[in-house]
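User: I'm preparing a small set of examples for a lab meeting where we compare how different chains pack in three dimensions. I only have the primary sequence for this one, and I'd like the structure in token form so I can line it up with the others. Please keep the answer compact; I'll paste it straight into my notes.
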Amino acid sequence: MPESIIRLRDISKVYEEDIAALCDVSLDVMEKDFVSIVGRSGSGKTTLIKLLIGEEKPTAGEIVINGWDLCNIKSRKIPYFRREIGVVFQDFKLLQQKTVAENIAFALIVLGTPRQEIHKRVPGVLSLVGLSGKGTRFPNELSGGEQQRVAIARAFVHEPKLLLADELTGDLDAIYAWEIMEILLKINKMGTTVLIATHDKSIVNRLQKRVVTLEDGTIIRDHKKGRYVI
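Assistant: Understood. Below is the structure token output for the 230-residue chain.
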């Protein structure tokens, strides 16, 4: 039986001046699941992602991800927690002075992965994201869609159990956005749990995967195989 890789219980996040970004959010995401977190701008999607990667802590509630208690985790332990997940940001966060292959390899170097294993994994993940032959290029020599693929490759090269992505198709046109989703579907089929935060209605409806809808910081819908209903 699949186990829960993300467990949220009664999560609330309140910022200064009593601004509630999330209110009493409870959610379970099982291993190998593919989940889209949707909602209008300001609904709480990005705040939720920040909590899931340990960038912020909730005001109240419980967050457990892959056995890590993120409400009580010590700051020095957060880098170790993040080594067990993959994260893709909308702005890529690529190292501009390094090549595509070096950007991807860097994620393995910080884990202490043997050089021989790095040389084996990097070409494989480049092939997975459709960038074979572009390992020697620099980020500024790639299109936005190609840079996003590099970011996905870097997030997945250490084969995490969980991949999180925040609005990763926001700046791409429909064709390239779906190509990115097809890569995430491949990764999901390989056994990695995928959770994306997005406002892209057409992408979500085409995926036909689980859809969790946020509104004013509260979950208002959770459909196992649903659509983005506004």
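A couple of notes for your slides: Helices lie at 45-52, 78-82, 100-109, 115-128, 144-156, 174-189, 201-207. The chain is about 30% helix and 30% strand.

User: Perfect, thanks.
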